[in-house]
Amino acid sequence: MTEKLDLTLPMGAQQIRAILPHRYPFLLVDRVTELEPGVSVVGAKLVSHNEPWTEGHFPGEPVMPGVLQLEAVAQLGGIMLLCQPEFYGKRVVLAGVERTRFRRIVRPGDTLDMAMQLESLRMGVGKASGKTSVNGETALITTIKFGFVD
After folding, report:
1. Looking at residue 3, what is its pLDDT?
2. Hey, which residues are catalytic here?
3. For burial by CB atoms within 10 Å, which of 45, 67, 93, 118 has the most?
């Protein structure tokens, strides 16, 4: 990729789509509010009543699936990495999940605040720690391993 990314904060949908390959219904980052490429990132997912999973997980009492919470924070981490010029045009893929804990239920109407911080990156394989919260209350903590593909 030869074009320069628009890293003006806060980032909205158009800027996020220019960085990540994901699209609805699987683009799970709505806003990026802080970014230090290759170091850390803070953003949010606005959990909507219109999301496909709300009808079946669970009927009458929708709860955002934990795997989607993990995917959302992993996508945020992808933004942190892909904003570095050496990784433009690459894809970040999930290689593993460690020490994950779910601390709070996330429901439609919630804003899932997310943060990722790079722990290590060597020879195209890395590790980052992530945390999500709703109204300041921790929802998820995790460590994610990732790799790059062209």
Report:
1. 66
2. 57
3. 45
Pick among 3.10.129.10, 3.30.300.30, 3.40.50.1980, 3.20.20.70: CATH of 13-149: 3.10.129.10
Per the confidence metrics, is the pTM higher than 0.85?
Answer: yes
pLDDT of residue 1: 46
Output the DSSP codes for 26-84. S----EEEEEETTTEEEEEEE--TTSGGGGTSSTTS----HHHHHHHHHHHHHHHHHTS
